[in-house]
Amino acid sequence: MPPRIIIIGAGPGGLAAAMLLAHAGLDVQIIERQACVGGRTSCVQANGYRFDLGPTFFLYPQVLEEIFSAVGRDLHREVPMRRLDPQYRLTFGAGGELLCRPNIEQMTAEIAKLAPLDAPQFARFMADNRVKLAKFAPCLQSPFLGWTSLLQSRLLGVLPYLKPWKSLHAELAGYFRDPRLQLAFTFQSKYLGMSPFQCPSLFSILSFLEYEHGIWHPIGGCNALTSTMARIAGELGATIQLNEPVQEILFRGRRAVGVRTRSGEIASDAVVVNADFAHAMTTLVPERFRRKWTNTRIAGKKFSCSTFMLYLGIEGRYDHLAHHNIHIAADYRKNLDEIERLHVLSQAPSFYVANPSRTDHTMAPSGHSVLYVLVPVSHQHPNIDWTRQREEYRQIVFRQLRQLGLEDVERRIRFERIITPADWEHTAGIYRGATFNLAHNLGQMLHLRPRNRFEEFDGMYLVGGGTHPGSGLPVIFESARITSRLLLQDLHARS
C-alpha cells in the first residue's frame, strides 16, 4: 500500500501539493471544511454573476506551468488565459494617473506623461531587479529549516541585494523622484498585506515581475486555476472530501499520525496543513503539545492587514474602466498608519476595483458587469466593531468609487455581497481576519517563518502563505513544490 497523506485544506497550495504527491504515487486525501475547493482562491456565484473571492491578479505563471508540466499537463491548454494590456490603471488622490503597460518602451512613454524626468529610470529599475530576482530566486525555491540554512552560498551571494536597512519605499526613491511613481512601484507590498514604508526592499521584485512576465487573467477568474487543479488531482488519484471540517490533528508522541473529523478518525503517514497557519495551530493542535508555537507566541507575531470586500453584480457595463484599477489615497501615509498602527477606519482610503467583464464575458450575464471592490483595512482589532460599522463603511467606499467616475453604482446593483475582516475570521477561518497571513518583515521570513517541514512535530508539513516563501499565488505554489519535495525525501528515508 502506498503511504497515505492527508492534506488539510483545498487552497491553491494544498491542491498543488496534491497534484505532485498523487503523481508520485502516494495515496492523497484532501479534507476541506468548505463546500468548494480553492480556499481564498474560490469564487462567489449568484444570478449569473461570478466573482473571484480573493486573488484576481495572476502573476508569474512559470511556477504553476512547471507544476503542471511535472504531472504531464499543460497549464495554458487546461486553463485559457489572456495577458492584460494595460495591466492596470493607477489613479492618485494627489492628482494624475498612470496607465501601466506591459513592456519597457510603452511604460516609459506612459511614465513620461506623468513625470518626464523620471521616465528614463524605468529601464534601470528593470535591469537592476532582473539581476536581483535571478540572484534571489534559488532562495525562494529552497527550504529554510534552521539558521544554518542562512550559510548557504546561494544566500550569501544575494545578501548585497537584500539591503535589510532599507524599506521598499526607500529603495524606489533611489529610482524615481516623483512621489507618485514611488508609490506606483511599491503599492505591490499590499499583495503581502504590508506598508511599503515597512516592507523590506527585497520586494521590489514584485513590481518587476508584473512588467517582466505580465499580469494574466484566467478565463473564468483565478478560481478557474484551483478548480482545474482539483480536477487534475482527482484524475491523478487524489480524493477530495468537502464540507468536512478537521476538528483535531492526531499525534503519537511527537508525530502527526492523522486527523479527527465529525465522521471519525483518519490515519495517515503524514499531515500537510494548508489551512491558515495561526488558525490551524490554535484550533487543531492542543496547546500542551506545542513547545515553540504557543498561543502567546502566535498572538505576539505581526500579522498582515485585512480587506473590506464588495462583490457587485451590475446592470450595464463599465467599459471606460480598465480590467484592474487602483486608487492611491491622497494621504497614503495617513491611510497606512490608520490601518497598521491606529487600527481605525479611514475616511478616504485607497482601494482597488476589478472590472473583469471588460475582458471575460463568462463573468456576468450579457449586458451586465461584475465589480470586485477591495479596500485594505486593519485586521481584527477592538477599535473596530464590524457589526456596527459595516454599513457606515459601505457608504464611505461608494463615495470613494466616484474617484473612478463611478457615480451611479448603487442604483444599478442587482447582486451584492459584503465581506469584512470579521467574516474572514469567523467564516473563512483566518486568524484575526489577516487575509495575507503573517507579515513579511525580516523577523518573519526564511527560517524565521513557520517551516515547510514543520519544526514542532514529525510527519507534519506546511504549505500556503503562512510558511516559506510567503504569500501570493506564485510563492504559495513554490511552497507546495518545496514541501512535496521534503515529504517525498522523508518518506524515502523512512522506507
Largest sheet: 7 strands, mixed
**How many helices in DSSP terms?**
16
Mean pLDDT: 94
User: What is the CATH topology classification name of the largest domain?
Assistant: FAD/NAD(P)-binding domain
Radius of gyration (CA) equals 22 Å
Number of strands: 20
CATH class annotation of the largest domain: Alpha Beta
Could you say what the CATH architecture of the largest domain is? 3-Layer(bba) Sandwich
What overall form do the CA principal axes indicate? globular
CATH superfamily of the largest domain: FAD/NAD(P)-binding domain
Whole-number total of structural domains: 3
Secondary-structure-derived class: alpha/beta
Strand order of the largest sheet: 8-7-16-17-18-15-19
Q: Which stretches of 5+ consecutive residues score pLDDT under 50?
A: none
What is the share of helical residues? 25-40%
Q: In what range is the share of β-strand residues?
A: 15-25%
- Alpha carbon gap, first and last residue: 12 Å
What does it look like?
- By secondary structure, the protein is of the alpha/beta class.
- It has 3 domains: 4-56 and 221-300 and 439-494, 3-Layer(bba) Sandwich (FAD/NAD(P)-binding domain), CATH 3.50.50.60; 82-216, no CATH class; 305-426, Guanine Nucleotide Dissociation Inhibitor, domain 2.
- It contains 16 helices and 20 strands.
- The chain has helices at 12-23, 62-70, 75-78, 104-114, 121-140, 153-162, 168-173, 179-184, 204-213, 223-235, 277-284, 295-299, 332-342, 386-401, 421-426, 473-494, and strands at 4-8, 27-31, 43-46, 49-52, 58-59, 81-83, 88-92, 97-100, 215-218, 239-241, 246-252, 255-261, 264-267, 270-273, 306-315, 324-328, 351-354, 368-377, 413-419, 460-462.
- The strands form 5 sheets. A 7-stranded mixed sheet has the order 8-7-16-17-18-15-19.
- A hairpin with a 2-residue loop joins strand 11 (246-252) and strand 12.
- Helix 1 packs parallel to helix 16 and helix 4 packs across helix 5.
- The mean pLDDT is 94.
